[in-house]
Amino acid sequence: xxxxxxxxxxxxxxxxxxxxxxxxxxxxxxxxxxxxxxxxxxxxxxxxxxxxxxxxxxxxxxxxxxxxxxxxxxxxxxxxxxxxxxxxxxxxxxxxxxxxxxxxxxxxxxxxxxxxxxxxxxxxxxxxxxxxxxxxxxxxxxxxxxxxxxxxxxxxxxxxxxxxxxxxxxxxxxxxxxxxxxxxx
Length: 185
Description:
Blueprint: H1 2-15, H2 22-31, H3 33-44, E1 48-50, E2 56-58, H4 67-85, H5 88-101, H6 105-122, H7 126-130, E3 131-133, E4 139-144, E5 154-156, H8 162-175, H9 179-182
Antiparallel strand pairs: 1-2, 3-4, 4-5
Helix pairs in contact: 1-4, 2-4, 3-4, 5-6, 5-8, 6-8
């Protein structure tokens, strides 16, 4: 558990008091990938129950999260955000395409259809889950919620997700009100 605590502390030092970049997050994930696998295996074995018929059931932990739980939760949350960042270039390309075709109804419908799996499915909650606002409802950075370590305040540089945010805001503005797609939902 000491190693988990040290890795969390290293991440917090790396993040500093401002927003952390996705590059620093990915560096930390790479550094602690083998530790994550080791701790995950260790913690997964703790909550098993074998029933009378031999079925193995995984029970949820009932106690306050320990350092290993916090480390695993932090790693998973950062890894998920890193996975979402991999779409940044794609969304940049899609926004360039959107600006070229936005005045054509048929091409716009094709663009919406092509991007439906991202905007209406895979990333439908991205803006709600990650965007952080100040007191004046001005967007600031991305805020990362870590399930087993809710005391951590982690902010991620918004600029690293510029294309994703622009794409989702544009997609949402059009898709959910467009006659063809609004009827489906």
